[in-house]
Amino acid sequence: MELVTSFAPNLILFNVCRFFVMLFNGGKHCVCNPFFMENLPDRHRMWVATVVTYSPTYILLSLAAYLCGDWRTLARFSSALTLVPLVLLFFVYDTPRWLILKGRDVEAEEAALAIKKWDAKITDELREKFHQAIKAESDRQKAQQMAMKHKYNVLDIFKSWTLTKYDIVFSTSLFSASFVSYGVAYNMDAIAGNVYVNVIILGGARYAINIIAALVELNFKNVGRRLLHITTIAVIVLLMAALMLTEFLIHPELMALKKARMEGRPVNSAIETISLVTRYAALLAAAMCTEVFVLDAVQPSELFPTPIRSGGNALIQVFNRLGTICSPLAFIPAAGWPAAPYLLMTLTSLADLVLYSMWIPETRGKPLPDKMPADMKEEEPDGNPLLISATTTPDDEEPQARARHLGGH
Q1: Basic and acidic residues composition bias: which ranges (predicted)?
Q2: pTM above threshold 0.85
Q3: At what angle do helices 161-185 and 340-359 cross, to 10 degrees?
Q4: Are 37 and 301 spatial neighbours (Cβ–Cβ below 8 Å)?
């Protein structure tokens, strides 16, 4: 569809084509995020998701757009790039966790061994160990499914208050992050400075924040998902509140400064300094949202049980898109009250901060849940760590404790 878009003769057909491009792009998000998390060990989920992210593409896409020269060529170039992951997908295994749940034990064993080949030599003893572990896990899953009253779907999220809370929080969080991030990005003309320079600063700041967060999370065990999320959102709230207060107090002076610059007249140095600070504050707040996007890709997959993991991610992604849709409209209320856009961004971010702080637990070091709350029994283990994707890795310092927690041997 990306290729078809490049041949669109008018705006209507262009929008129709883009609708389907984004429809399938959204589907890709719903599938890839859970798949990504199920294949990565716990200690590597955050840093990999942080480094391999959208931020570098801000700069790369700008370079590609410059080289392509027009949007049609850029669309054809981006469609050609999608051939690379399309080919690579033929070499990817479904996760053992999912295959066992679907009753495909032989494929689950092949997938588990293929994953294990990356860090160990596959011996006959290890192969037999995997075979027995998968058989035991398969028998356990079959017994659970026999006891289930029905097959689960996304609507079952709302039959559990715990899962409903998760959905509310991450939906709010993604809406807020999209609203702030793209609200600033799509309204660069409302921010001091050159638009193109601001975009470059935003892209660079996003990736710098990603790298810093990845290093901190990887090297400090006491820094978990909760601390990163709460700290990030708290900074965004403070920055947006400061911008709101600035616009409320000295908006006429800022407008006078902008006019003086355009006319080449002398400017007030104090107001110019404040304008510069507000510029970087707005860009920093938008850049901080990149970490929220990463956390909201990792944590939902760590909290939603396997039967509704993809459905849960799909549901919260709707609000991600809704925030993106609303973000270009963020600065329209500024015509009536200059501080209004920043007030809206402050309120959405504050809602994220409050709800997340109340309802979301720490997930670092915890196994991915397989069972719905209605099927949970305290005496039952949640799965075998040997084959359930990557709950443990050879370099974990407490594999035995984690194995006991998971019911492993």
Answers
A1: 367-376
A2: no
A3: 150
A4: yes
